[in-house]
Fold:
Amino acid sequence: METLDTEILVIGSGAGGSITAARLADAGRQVVVVEEGPWVDAGAHEPFSLEEMVAKYRHHGASLALGNPNIAYAEGRCVGGSTEVNSGLYHRLPESLVADWEARYAIDEFTPAELGRHADRVEQDLGVSTLPGAPPPSSAMLERGATKLGWRHVEFARVFRYDAAGRGTKQTMSRTMLPRALGAGARIIADCRVQRLVCDGDRIVGARVRRRHAGGAVERLVIRADHVFVCAGAVETPALLQRSGIRRNAGNGLKMHPTVKIAARFPHPIDHGDVPMHRVTEFAPSLTIGGSASRRGHIAMALADTGLPFDAALADWENISVYYAAIRSEGSGRVLAVPGLASPVVTYKLTDGDLSRLARGIVHLGELLLAAGATELHPSILGGPVVRRVDELGAWWDALTRSRANLMTVHLTSTVRMGEDRQRTGADSFGRVWGHRNLRVNDASLLPDAPGVNPQAAIMAIAARNCHEFLAS
Amino acid sequence: MLWFERAVVSALVASDDPAVRSAVEAFVDGSLRDKPEHLRVGVAGESILLGGYAVGLRAVGRLDGADALRARLESWESGPIGVVRQYVRAMKSLVIFAENELATSRAA
Structure:
């Protein structure tokens, strides 16, 4: 079997892995990044299209957390990870949450000021900005509805750079931090799945990998490294640790933002090429309202959620957009690597309180959309009635049950929590996996809880902070 | 893709265009192949059970043609058995997404 030697092995190239690779390579360290998915040009496919789904998503975007109800989830699987397929929304961790996590999990040097310092640099490196002009109609509808109801709302910044003509380009990892890592001497190996880490006592000495070449040939390889950073996301990171015999607090406590949706029909055309950047924060952090990808395929799927005939509505699809209400969940889940299976089993237990919050969320979302001028609302509830007036929204309270709710999420976190409380965490305050001197986790798995906002800003700032500590130590 | 899964896709695709039907079937086939193993086994198991039931119905003349299968799928989707509801919903989502995305790209 071939071997490859490096000082630092980074497993995964998403928000956490790319920041890790760039920071360490910039500091002169020898870095190899392995990514399970392919290298796909960032502009090769239209965002959220069928082609993108096939090329860049794990399981064609159709993964599932088992439970009552099941919750569909999607994550990227390509060089750049989920940063290549998300909407680019960027929201720093709320200061109250930082203080809460620091106290509850005994996380050292975890303050708003410390995280802010690293976030500043990440934002400079990537380019984080708001729209240079007026928002598109899909986003303006959120603004209009919230204003009419007197609810707080905000335009979230995004990881975008705009040219003089106002055209935006999402600053994905394959456009930013990965080229930077390459420029500093790092090596990136795509189509390369890590099967297991190789342990020697309390040290990781390398990783066994399978690399798929363009013609389909599979090469088995051992990558030997002095230090290993696992940054494969909140599902694959704990699964890899478990496959490698590291099970202590790895895979427990999965958190997510369960989400309900409404397909809203307006009396005028709505844009479909982007995701709305406005968010309604009146009920944050427990409940956030925003807009989803709304290509024709997404609209058709959302209309079909009721199980009722939708041909007439679909004929008018250019006037329809999809919106969501996402909650911070009390429930939690597990990631379990099963011997012999390549994919881990993911489960999630939604509480009755979560279900109640989701019902409240979909009713509030309905209120907002009607206030914004929507004429017809199709909820993601099987058998849920189509609503045209505010006084009809009450019917959704009873309709949203475990057996009738169609839920999904794109934010998964907290499967290897960080902190000094060894009973509740899988890694120390800087991501060092308990019991292993040279093994670190540096991705969404470390977040102690789902933050209630898009987590990529938190993942990037924490990853940069942990690299700083690694280099200093 | 199992024969009943192919029959379900064929019943759910609205377009008569052979190219669209073929592309939707290819997408669903790829999605099913790419599913996590435990989920694929579950879907395949349901396909075999429901397919067997469909064969039985067909043998007694109660499931003739794609229209009858589509009507049967609609009744399963709102029926009392959770895993059957989810099966129909999963297959329907894949078909609806693929067919409508293909319609968009062909229109462009």
